[in-house]
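hey so u asked for the seq, here:
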Amino acid sequence: MSDIYPAENPPRTPAAGVRKRHVFYFSGFDPRGPAHYHTLYGEQGKLHTPLNGLDLDVGKRRRVGKLANAWTVTAGDTETEYEFLRWDDIIRNRWPKNEWQLLKSAVPVYWVFLKANLVGRLLKIAWPSALTVSYPIIAFLGLLLTGAFLAVAAGIFLPLYLGLPLAAGILVGTIFLGRWLDDRFRSFWLLRVYGAMQPWAYGKMPELDERIREFADHIAERIKGSDADEILVVGHSVGTILTVPLVVELLKREPELGVRGPAFGLVSLGNCLPLVSLLPGSGKLREDLKTVATAPGVRWLDFSARRDGASVTQVDPLKVSGISRPEGIPVRPQQFPVRIVKMFPPDVYAVIKKDIFRIHFQYIMAGELLTDYDFFAITAGPMSLAERFPENAISPA
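ran it, structure tokens below
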């Protein structure tokens, strides 16, 4: 066994299960705040209860300082303090309000992607992710150029009294068509995500870096005052990227995180890490990835679904990012497949699978059939992460 994984002082994982748990949830790039996620957790948890047998009781939402909202979830003898880490204010400030702002943010981002050959590299490891990165800008620019061409043609080839109103109508129609396509395929949402995360990777979002440090201070303080058996940091979507520097900051404050005291787990849902770690300017993130993956007290589990094109599914984020691991330590993150197709009857899944947004959020939603992935059991059930997913469980390649 490696000397950075000492046999003494193991994380506390009680054989009788978890009496108290503390969950810190880091959302994706979503301007909806804690009220939405509190309602979603309560509604979906109730829908899922008949499947897993957990009698979930989700308490009222309350503020926990300026950085988080919290609610208490009870399931039998297990009590979970569930905190939603707030960065929705930063998201709204970085959310382009119209098509012109979106274009101004998207073009430089995709120029960086082009120079880094991001799409080509993604094609080799997860082609659905390469398609998801490519189609928003192609659809956006294609629609814009087609609308502009038709408007100009109408103005040139038709009499002025017909051409000008028709050209104006085409331009307005192009905008509304684009917004309809966004509602249907979430193209503009993806452009907004890329328009924020690439600048962040290059150190151009200092307010987010500061918020991550504030989160680390907040979590470290909460852990000190907690008698929880298990501490979980859960990142979804873009949150899977941002929880990495967050855990690094936590380790600076608590070097024996997970080695002494409560067991500590990092849970990634719909991993997006390679979308940033493959960029040449993301050296800091790659350093943080190695730090978290080799931290002795951090049990890191990554859950992803092959159908989820909005994430980079079932790939080793260290290996694809060119990061080597020391020999003799457990492989982190440990990967587990989420089989969304098994969560629903065939006729229901046939509808759901067409909605990229729904598929990407299924990690935190109820299914209609029970599978070995159960978000509500992980975050509120009586079994610890280590008990539910043993260290020797087989991870898919």
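The chain is about 50% helix and 15% strand. The chain has two domains: 20-90+206-388, 95-197.
lmk if thats what u needed
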